Amino acid sequence: MGSLNFYERFSRTFRQNPSISRFLVVFAVSGGGLVAYSEANIQAGPKIDELPESGNEKKRVVVLGTGWAGTSFLKNLKNPSYDVQVISPRNYFAFTPLLPSVTVGTVEARSVVEPIRNIVKKKNVNVNYWEAECYRIDAKNKKIYCRSSQEDKEEFVVDYDYLVVAMGARVNTFNTPGVEENCLYLKEVEDAQKIRRTVIDCFEKASLPNLSEDEKRRALQFVVVGGGPTGVEFAAELHDFVSEDLVKLYPSVKDLVKITLLEATDHILNMFDKRITTFAEEKFHRDGIDLKTGEMVVKVSEKEITTKVIKTGVVSTIPYGMAVWSTGIATRPVIMDFMKQIGQANRRVLATDEWLRVEATNSIYALGDCATINQRKVMEDISAIFQKADKDNSGTLTVKEFQEALDDICDRYPQVQLYLNNKQMSSIVDLLTESKGDVAKESIELNVEEFKSALSQVDSQMKNLPATAQVAAQQGAYLADCFNRMEECTKNPEGPLRFRESGRHRFRPFRYRHLGQFAPLGGEQTAAQLPGDWVSIGHSSQWLWYSVYAR
């Protein structure tokens, strides 16, 4: 109660003292969290529903989506020379890392959302928001087709000069029969609220006097499908909620509760360090969470989940009262249709270049979970790189010539630096030296075939970025910065050399800065994995993860 009064006093202070420009408070409470954010000194800007004036020469930027990527773009866009149109069926931004906490009431839903209109009204940029869903993108004619989220479902068309696609992704059911009809998801605030109601409903049902023992057990069997960060955190939060709160409210059925976590691979949290994976699995076993790895779900009925052990093929069933499906993401239908238009039908998600521009388009950008960067390979441009670096056209490349082009090469092809780091080489000169044996560095000269051989393994370090809030937020901020400086960088390009053409790219390519990953494991035990192979497991790690977004 004291902490609540403390929070209320803070809120009152923010309202009464507008001179406080920005303040962030991060609490870690009982394994959950509470984030309080206040921003004052808001500049007066255009009305958010104000349409551009007739004859307006400003370029229209249409933003599809109000998730991490879209909201980050809007928050960082400062150039008033654009008319910005935001279109999304969700009129708020949700702090998704806290959704598992919302499912059990550790954090209230209202604490993890911010109305998108509050965000855009702070901008000194002309911004309009419409609550609608885009159902078709016409890249050829630069139009998008939308449908209102209101009951009338009114349809309308919006023209654009630039389109920013940040629509996120949908839940991936892998076409498993019965999932859509019988399972709950955990992607939106509404999902978390529905889970919370369902958990209570299951306990209320099990408390009824006319149910048999088996029916009560089934009602209190909670199954989580998916051993990634979301599934693991929800299972941990649910366990704490049951053991700390619900057993006191429903003492007659407390011994009937069972939580099962299903994961198709051999381990949960397989994207984390093995030390975290091992700790999490051991903790779940101690807590009594039934952990089933190496089992895939093949069917979900109204009362049972059918699973199959991948290695042996043994099929079994699990009765359940509530099932939460958290197994990854899939592309939205509108994006799939758009991909067919632009020749990307065989891809899983939209492919962009290193500047987040959709391939085969000139004015469409995609970021967040709906897209992936198709990093260009060094070996595709190896001859052009050699020719550009060989300034004296001698047909051979000296160390000095290569060093002069090195920054542009590493900037354009980040896999080069990753390869050198992996090989523990201080510079690419060491790589050239390795290819020529004991020859002194200053005497090294490589022809084009020797150059190809030296860099032949560099592209092996290419990796797709994970579909996380951290990536999406950084992409939104990067693209906004590009739009802020579009005119400036068109006149004075700052990017790397164009190896196949003349001049330079306008901007530096997007580079993701990994700040670490985090997994709450329940019982105020949390795990953080930060750059540099640094792992923290314990009671004090939670603030680290939430502070990643505290900017």
From TrEMBL:
Domain EF-hand: from-to ranges: 377-412
> What's the protein's topology in the membrane?
Peripheral membrane protein
Q: Where in the cell is it found?
A: Mitochondrion inner membrane; Peroxisome
Catalytic activity line of the entry: a ubiquinone + NADH + H(+) = a ubiquinol + NAD(+)
Q: Which Gene3D superfamilies match?
A: 3.50.50.100
Q: Does the keyword Mitochondrion apply?
A: yes
Under Pfam families, the record lists: EF-hand_1 (PF00036), Pyr_redox_2 (PF07992)
Which PANTHER family does the record associate with it? NADH DEHYDROGENASE, NADH:UBIQUINONE REDUCTASE (NON-ELECTROGENIC)
Which named protein is this?
Answer: EF-hand domain-containing protein
